[in-house]
TrEMBL record:
Its EC number is 2.4.1.-. One of its GO terms (molecular function) is galactosyltransferase activity. It is found in: Golgi apparatus membrane. The chain crosses the membrane at residues 37-59. This is Hexosyltransferase. GO terms for cellular component: Golgi membrane. It is a single-pass type II membrane protein. Its cofactor is Mn(2+). Belongs to the glycosyltransferase 31 family. InterPro entries: Glyco_trans_31 (IPR002659).
């Protein structure tokens, strides 16, 4: 889906705040906005946000001092926070945009953006080396805290500095929940750190594949990146080395980068990784990347973003599903063990306890231990 947005930033300068992707039933956006003068006062406008099943247009300063939302179809202007609460005292996120679902109900749908005068405007997506989405959930606050104490910046200013130096945009990626308490806690965390990408998808493990697809589409709509990478929030990462890895020359524009594996198809329902569609797969899975960390090149993600009428088969496991889609795209499989190292070394890019755990075992403790090791945090 084509992107229309406003960007006053130079290449490699990623906006600090967060945004939202659409997921859900397609809703036509109608109506005109009232209160145009009120919204027009926000000259640094970047877009709008979808909150649960409603489509909101959020107009705000680059500094994120104030959000103003236009409820499409009713022409009302009000503040809106991440929990969906409407009111004049809602906080700002900085960057946001219009997000609507695609025809299949999954996607970013960054379709159009409003300028400071309330008019539709065309703009160019910021060019970056990669958009790195850190998959997280509502019960993962301690993990995010550990990340912010180690390799992930704890302030918006630090995040911006990292993004400028590496060309990598980092955001925690999360959906929504009906639990008002958890949404309130998320709202407070968003306001403090401004390092989230908010997707309009139910945050539950059974919908991880849909969340991942919505992430890729949303990130593609926001940024013109060479790569789009998904990692879990229990991975120790060296952003500088990741930038070096992703920036190296490649012969093909269609790249699937990860730690590749095969393995037996689980046919017994009592086991965790049971595959209900095992009868289609035989006894062994096809080659695919481990789910905790992998990257897709721009051309690959463009195919996912362009397919409005999604008809790809979905398996129970997200990593298998992505691998199945890659089979049909004639991608180059790049198996790189530097992103699944068991310990820090001179070439390790990402460290986690494969195959014992699908990430770091006891991540809140291990993350801090690794960061104290100079081989992890300070070596070239």
């Amino acid at each position: 889906m084509p992107f229309s947005g406003i960007s006053a930033r130079k290449s490699w300068m990623a906006p600090l705040p967060t945004s939202s992707g659409g997921y859900g039933e397609e809703k036509p956006m109608r109506g005109r906005t009232s209160g145009r003068g009120l919204c027009g006062a926000n000259a640094g406008v970047y877009g709008a946000v979808v909150i649960t099943s409603l489509v909101w247009l959020v107009l705000l300063h680059v500094t994120g001092v104030r959000d103003w939302a236009i409820l499409c179809g009713r022409g009302e202007v009000a503040g809106v926070d991440v929990s969906g609460k409407v009111g004049s005292e809602s906080g700002g996120y900085g960057l946001s945009y219009i997000a609507s679902s695609q025809d299949d109900g999954v996607g970013s749908g960054l379709v159009e953006l409003m300028d400071g005068e309330g008019k539709r405007s065309e703009a160019v997506r910021p060019k970056v080396l990669a958009f790195v989405g850190i998959n997280t959930g509502f019960d993962s606050g301690p993990r995010r805290a550990s990340l912010r104490e180690t390799w992930f910046p704890s302030t918006p200013e630090g995040l911006n500095k990292l993004e400028e130096s590496t060309g990598l945009v980092f955001r925690f990626v999360i959906g929504h929940t009906d639990d008002a308490r958890k949404m309130k806690a998320l709202d407070e965390e968003v306001q403090e750190h401004k390092d989230f990408l908010l997707l309009d998808v139910d945050e539950q493990y059974s919908k991880l594949t849909l969340k991942t697809l919505a992430f890729f589409r949303t990130a593609y709509s926001l940024y013109d990146a060479d790569f789009y990478m998904k990692i879990d929030d229990d991975i120790y990462l060296r952003p500088d080395r990741l930038a070096t890895l992703l920036s190296k020359p490649r012969e093909s524009p269609m790249v699937y980068l990860g730690c590749m594996k095969k393995g037996p198809v689980i046919t017994e329902p009592k086991f965790k990784w049971y595959e209900p569609q095992a009868y289609m797969l035989g006894s062994e899975y096809f080659l695919h990347a481990y789910g905790p960390i992998y990257a897709l090149s721009k051309e690959v993600v463009a195919n996912l973003a362009a397919n409005k009428n999604q008809r790809y088969r979905k398996f129970i496991n997200e990593d298998v599903t992505i691998g199945a889609w890659m089979l049909g795209m004639d991608v180059v499989y790049e198996d790189n063990r530097a992103i699944c190292a068991n310990e820090c070394g001179p070439t390790s890019v990402a460290v986690w306890d494969l195959p014992k755990c699908s990430g770091l075992c006891n991540p809140t403790k291990r993350m801090l231990e690794l960061h104290k090791d100079e081989m992890c945090s300070k070596s070239p």
